[in-house]
Backbone:
């Protein structure tokens, strides 16, 4: 048992009240910040892995949204959740949240997924959740996280039992993701797919598209025909050239 | 002094030895004077015109000398002089004397007029040589002792050098000699006859004086003058001659020069002068000659001018890039003509003719290469690559070649000997080798073979087998296994039919005679077609057969291929004329309907037979619209079949033949939609082959980059077809999807095999 000075004990109390964290967690955070409260708060909120050991609260929350006759949160529950969070269900932050939850399928959360997800995010109440939203959105700006979320999306948005992603869903997801990342060619890409492809999207095409967006500039000046891009992307380049969007390289 | 006879033996003493007396200078001087005199005598006797040979042989002069010496008592004076260290005096004296003599000789040569100049020079040279021999003999002791030790030029060589310096290089003679020689050569080139023996002698003289003399004082200027001579001449010829004639002239000149060298120039000059002629007459005008309008290489090829071509080949071979120029021009000509041939719509109307044209072109050029180009392999290769290029420009080539073979095996080879058959098939195989899309050929060959086998229309079974063997040798067992299966089916069917009739004869009674070919699916080209409605008589016997067959082969499934059969029908017409009609199964179904009706509309026929529309139209057309075969009459009498037409049994049908063939089972050039279909099937068949190749490669290499996969796959499949890189890429992606392969996490271009 720690022998704490009076000032420190007070800080621990304060910390626990404000964050709802356990004593152990409070001590960790305050020690890490050299017993400055502000620093301790930063520390705590930037490390959502610190388990908010308030599983009781999480269970309550889960039960609030789950289906009456199934152990899942489905469309209605999610809709309610979005309402409470004051976000549009189409908001991309829902995607980030699903990623944290490691959700297997769109529009469904299992108990495990929901609870683990909220723990990973580091919230145990709607209010805290709401406050967390900006920082969740900010995660998309991180290159590494964006890639993980992007690749996660493919599996998540698939129909159960399907290997590939339906074109409609894929286009929807891409528009969502690249609106954030601002890829100038996103509209041409979606148009091209609808006009020329009209089939499902394979995982390889999905993952390689991100590479394409990240490495090839919108004028395609550094596009290499021998670059082993998926054929769909090669066809997209041809499409752009045919329609005069870019110049053919000599 | 009386001549003749050997010297009398004298008991002379070699006084020098005995007395060992130092020769006093005056003595030496006198001795020298004697020798000097002797030298002059030698030369004088030349001038005297006496036969030097005689003189020499009779040792007259030598005797004279010896007698003189003996007389004076200075035998072996030279010996003495040398012995007593007067070698230098002797040598210098010799040199001076000879020089003096040569200067005199020079004047007399210079004085010679016109044509005699050369003769005079030659004569004097001969004399000088002889004199030199003699002098050397006399002064042999000096040559052997004094000369080496004092490092002076030996006598003979000294004589030559002096001749060179004072005669050949004398200002008055030097240029005149060269000019004379060159002038004579020029005149000979212009057609005059010159004294070749004299020329020979002179050039030999120059060579004797040293190769450097020959080269500097004659050969080099000779080559320069020749170059400008031939430059001028070739310029003149090329303006007024056609290619063939020009080359004849060039060849003639070349031969002339070689002959010239062999007659009166040094052998070493041959390579140099031919090189000049080659350069001036051929190399400098190479392109103009090859491309000469109306007479250049292309014209020679077209007109089979073997002699001219042979000459051109031989001449161009001598110059750098000569043959490669010929080859390049030939190649682009072949490619151009070939391209025109395979894209000319007129030609393409008759596939058999088209292929015959290709074979003729090949034969023609094979002969040219063999007769005129000495079977040069590089030309053979150029021919092959050109053919390969343009044959594949037309993607119907595989189909057409198969049709050609079909025509030959159907009727073209009738009556031909086994040898003839082999020759023709081998030639076809040559064309086959050029094909890039051998798998397309395979598809068509199968189709055409099927039709031949089923209609029994093959000229010779041996010829068929021979072709299959050739294909197997070229492409391997896989290529021909199905074809061989087809032959097997035919044989088995024969046996089955025999057994059927043996066992079921009583059951069948008077019904129509059935001849069934049982085709193993997979070996035969499948053309799925819905079976049509067979006439009841036929249906009965067909069912009996089915029952019989399935009785012995339970577990198999039989489907009637009504689009591939034939029938022989006996028909009686209006005036009682009886004919036997050989028709297709479809046609039989249609005709049998008219046993119970005189006239039927198109729609009624369609309904009754359930033959697919396009086939039905073709079928009716062949029954009603072809002169000499119109067993049906159509109203209205238009050329094409419309769905509103009505058909009647043509009572008035006549034909000179009792047996009339109306069937349309002959293999024909495909229509557009059929062609599209076949091509699609080929493309579909290629996909698994490409995938199999990719998997094979990746299994052994484990990790490989994209471009390497593409090139390896292409290499593996090129014996059958040229895979499209885009298709290969799609197959790779499909394999990634099915988790046979994966992309490397870091390098997109790298693929990994997943076990």
Residues:
């Amino acid at each position: 048992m720690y022998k704490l000075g009076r000032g420190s004990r007070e800080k621990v109390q304060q910390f626990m009240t404000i964050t709802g964290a356990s004593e152990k967690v409070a001590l960790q955070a305050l020690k890490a910040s050299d017993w400055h409260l502000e620093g301790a708060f930063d520390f705590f909120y930037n490390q959502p892995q610190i388990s908010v050991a308030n599983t009781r609260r999480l269970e309550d929350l889960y039960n609030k949204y789950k289906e009456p006759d199934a152990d899942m949160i489905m469309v209605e529950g999610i809709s309610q959740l979005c309402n409470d969070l004051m976000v549009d269900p189409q908001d991309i932050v829902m995607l980030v949240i699903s990623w944290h939850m490691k959700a297997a399928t769109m529009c469904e959360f299992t108990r495990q997924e929901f609870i683990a997800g909220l723990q990973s995010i580091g919230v145990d109440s709607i209010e805290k959740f709401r406050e967390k939203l900006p920082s969740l959105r900010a995660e998309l700006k991180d290159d590494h996280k964006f890639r993980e979320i992007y690749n996660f999306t493919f599996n998540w948005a698939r129909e159960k039992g399907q290997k590939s992603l339906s074109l409609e869903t894929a286009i929807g997801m891409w528009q969502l993701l690249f609106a954030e990342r601002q890829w100038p060619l996103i509209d041409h890409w979606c148009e091209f797919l609808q006009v020329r492809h009209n089939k499902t999207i394979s995982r390889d095409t999905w993952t390689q598209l991100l590479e394409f967006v990240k490495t090839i500039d919108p004028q395609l000046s550094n596009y290499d025909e021998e670059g082993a891009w998926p054929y769909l992307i090669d066809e997209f380049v041809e499409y752009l050239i045919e329609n005069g969007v870019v110049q053919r390289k000599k | 002094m009386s001549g003749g006879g050997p010297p009398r033996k004298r008991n002379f003493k070699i006084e020098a030895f005995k007395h060992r007396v130092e020769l006093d200078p005056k003595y030496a001087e006198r001795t020298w004077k004697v020798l000097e005199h002797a030298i002059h005598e030698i030369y004088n006797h030349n001038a005297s015109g006496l036969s030097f040979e005689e003189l020499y042989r009779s040792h007259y002069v030598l005797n004279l000398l010896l007698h003189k010496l003996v007389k004076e008592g200075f035998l072996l004076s030279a010996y003495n002089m040398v012995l007593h260290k007067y070698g230098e005096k002797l040598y210098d004296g010799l040199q001076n004397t000879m020089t003096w003599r040569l200067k005199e000789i020079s004047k007399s040569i210079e004085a010679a007029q016109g044509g005699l100049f050369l003769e005079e020079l030659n004569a004097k040279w001969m004399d000088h040589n002889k004199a030199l021999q003699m002098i050397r003999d006399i002064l042999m002791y000096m040559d052997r002792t004094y000369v080496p030790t004092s490092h002076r030029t030996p006598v003979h060589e000294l004589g030559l050098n002096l001749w060179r310096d004072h005669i050949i290089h004398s200002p008055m003679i030097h240029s005149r000699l060269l000019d004379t020689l060159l002038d004579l050569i020029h005149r000979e080139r212009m057609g005059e006859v010159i004294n070749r023996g004299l020329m020979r002698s002179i050039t030999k003289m120059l060579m004797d004086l040293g190769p450097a003399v020959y080269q500097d004082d004659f050969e080099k200027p000779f080559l320069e003058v020749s170059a400008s001579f031939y430059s001028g001449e070739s310029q003149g010829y090329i303006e007024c001659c056609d290619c063939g004639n020009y080359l004849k002239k060039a060849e003639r000149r070349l031969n002339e020069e070689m002959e010239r060298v062999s007659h009166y120039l040094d052998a070493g000059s041959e390579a140099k002068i031919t090189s000049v002629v080659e350069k001036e007459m051929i190399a400098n005008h190479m392109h103009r000659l090859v491309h000469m309008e109306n007479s250049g290489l292309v014209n020679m090829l077209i007109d089979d001018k073997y002699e001219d071509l042979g000459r051109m080949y031989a001449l161009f071979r001598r110059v750098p890039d000569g043959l490669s120029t010929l080859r390049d021009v030939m190649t682009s000509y072949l490619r151009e003509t070939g391209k025109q041939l395979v894209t000319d719509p007129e030609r393409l109307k008759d596939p058999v003719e088209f292929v015959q044209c290709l074979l003729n072109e090949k034969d023609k050029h094979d002969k040219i290469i063999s007769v005129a180009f000495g079977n040069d392999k590089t030309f053979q290769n150029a021919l092959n690559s050109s053919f390969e290029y343009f044959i594949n420009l037309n993607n119907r080539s595989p189909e057409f070649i198969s049709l050609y073979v079909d025509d030959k095996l159907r009727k073209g080879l009738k009556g031909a000997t086994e040898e003839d058959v082999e020759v023709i098939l081998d030639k076809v195989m040559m064309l086959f080798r050029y094909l890039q899309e051998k798998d397309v050929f395979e598809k068509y060959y199968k189709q055409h073979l099927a039709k031949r086998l089923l209609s029994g229309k093959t000229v010779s079974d041996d010829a068929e087998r021979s072709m299959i063997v050739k294909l197997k040798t070229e492409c391997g067992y896989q290529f021909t296994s199905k074809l061989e299966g087809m032959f097997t089916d035919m044989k088995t069917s024969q046996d089955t039919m025999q057994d059927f009739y043996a066992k079921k004869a009583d059951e069948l009674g008077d019904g129509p005679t059935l001849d069934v070919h049982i085709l193993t699916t997979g070996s035969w080209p499948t053309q799925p077609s819905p079976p049509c409605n067979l006439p009841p008589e036929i249906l009965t016997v067909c069912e009996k057969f089915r029952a019989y067959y399935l009785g012995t082969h339970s577990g198999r499934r039989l489907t009637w291929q009504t689009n591939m059969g034939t029938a022989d029908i006996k028909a009686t017409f209006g005036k009682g004329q009886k004919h036997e009609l050989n028709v297709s199964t479809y046609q039989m179904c249609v005709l049998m309907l008219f046993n119970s009706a005189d006239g039927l509309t198109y729609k009624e026929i369609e309904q009754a037979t359930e033959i697919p529309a396009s086939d039905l139209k073709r079928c009716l057309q062949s029954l009603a619209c072809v002169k000499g075969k119109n067993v049906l009459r159509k109203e209205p009498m238009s050329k094409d079949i419309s769905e509103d037409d009505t058909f009647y049994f043509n009572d008035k049908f006549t034909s000179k033949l009792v047996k009339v063939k109306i069937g349309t089972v002959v293999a024909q050039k495909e229509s557009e939609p059929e062609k599209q279909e076949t091509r699609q099937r080929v493309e579909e068949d290629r996909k698994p082959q490409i995938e199999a190749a990719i998997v094979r490669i990746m299994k052994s290499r484990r990790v490989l980059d994209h471009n390497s996969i593409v090139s390896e796959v292409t290499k593996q499949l090129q014996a059958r077809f040229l895979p499209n890189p885009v298709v290969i890429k799609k197959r790779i992606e499909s394999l990634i999807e099915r988790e046979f392969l994966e992309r490397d996490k870091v390098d997109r271009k790298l693929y990994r095999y997943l076990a």
User: Anything to note?
Assistant: The first helix of chain A runs from residue 6 to 19. Chain A has three domains: 6-45, 55-139, 143-242. Chain A touches chain B through 15 residues (CB under 8 Å). The first strand of chain A starts at residue 72 and ends at 73.
